[in-house]
């Protein structure tokens, strides 16, 4: 990260932190490790972010937009000109779960050899950091990467608040099965993730939810 000019590192429930071995391996970048923000959950780590890109080594049976990491870097820089963004990496052994990817608005993949696409975590992070730096410093980047997000995107906590409000409302009107709520809510998350909700849009949707009530028997549609 430091080699490529990045400095904001967030760690979610690290196995050991601080860790003498990690500090030793970081050599000249120890200050970046020491200033890392440790969080208890991915939701906490994404607080304030307007756009999150999750890394996956394989295609998932979910409806997120999936792009290669070079396209993701370009998209990220466009939004980052105005609002914070995040690249999200999973564990060394299992990567990101579908539930964790549900917290992201886009999935990025490194187009490796399909017969052997294995990359360890550090290598994947380095590829992403490199692509971000190339997108930012390339000759064409200064001309082509310009802020085009005219409206402010909703932050992660605003979107999570909307999802909680939506689930509560769907339960109240009897549309959501309380026995298995996660199946529908997962689909709803993926639907809204593709839209890239703006701050005002979340406020609008929550206003609609606030006025939504259980239909009475005499109500006609």
Structural features, described:
With 221 residues, the chain is α/β, with parallel strands linked by helices. It folds into 2 domains: 10-144, SPOUT methyltransferase, trefoil knot domain (Alpha/beta knot), CATH 3.40.1280.10; 156-211, Helicase, Ruva Protein, domain 3 (Orthogonal Bundle). It is built from 10 helices and 6 strands. Strands 4-6-3-5 form a 4-stranded parallel beta sheet, with helices on one face. A two-stranded parallel ribbon has the order 1-2. The longest helix has 17 residues, at 121-137.
Point out poorly predicted stretches: none
Please state the overall shape, judged from the principal axes of the Cα atoms. Answer: globular
- CATH architectural label of the largest domain: 3-Layer(aba) Sandwich
- The CATH superfamily of the largest domain turns out to be SPOUT methyltransferase, trefoil knot domain
For the report, how would you describe the main beta sheet? 4 strands, parallel
What is the arithmetic mean of pLDDT?
A: 87
List keywords for this structure.
single chain; 221 residues; alpha/beta; Alpha/beta knot; Helicase, Ruva Protein, domain 3; 2 domains; four-stranded parallel beta sheet; two-stranded parallel ribbon; 6 strands; 44% helix; globular
